[in-house]
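Record 1 of the preview.
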Amino acid sequence: MKPIRIFRHEDWINPGRLAEYLDARKVPWEIVRIDQGEKVPLSIGDVSGLAFLGGTMSANDDHDWLADEIELIRIAADEGVPMLGHCLGSQLIAKALGGTVEPMPQKEIGWHEVRKVDNPVSRDWLGAVPDSFDIFIWHHDAFTLPPGAAPLYSSAHCPMQAFAFGNTVAIVAHAEVTAAMMEEWLATFGYDIEPVSESVQPIEQIRQNLGERCATMHRLFTDRLYDAWLARVRAHSRRSVTA
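->
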């Protein structure tokens, strides 16, 4: 199986649970370190899938690598290559496929309850996931649905949280975060958690039962979403081999 190519945009926002999940299943993966100046490969013939991580920048910022990633997403979508987006990655996928990305009236940070949308696509991707669950979210911008995409779940503060488009899935939440990663994020970027509001939780609340909450999120949601995505990656890989 060809590797999953993961795009990292800042050196403290790493694959986390995604890397653990792939390693446990002996799925090869590689990382493109945008934060270290590595270029965006526009080839897709040497990968089984693409994954895009988060970052503190906006999908609308004027960076050459952002334009390159958006171009890559469009190339991959045309060829049916499965893609996975977290936070900024989800916004890049939405923008590349015809949606928009704009600042929200108020940022959303913390452990928030989300509820599944009842549609056939959500049932297909999230059939094993509870109807409502807590997930970790940290974002300032929100996307609109690209044409042909279907919403998967929503929160009280940002209805458009996740979508699927063919064999691609994009979530604004950080379902990949681990407790160790979260501590690094709070040390690096904790100043962003101001002012505290209904949609922005204080650091003490975010840290409460952190290890248990991350493990529960991974068990109830993250791994099940990754299961659905990996099944599509493997199916696409089989078709590519026999084509």
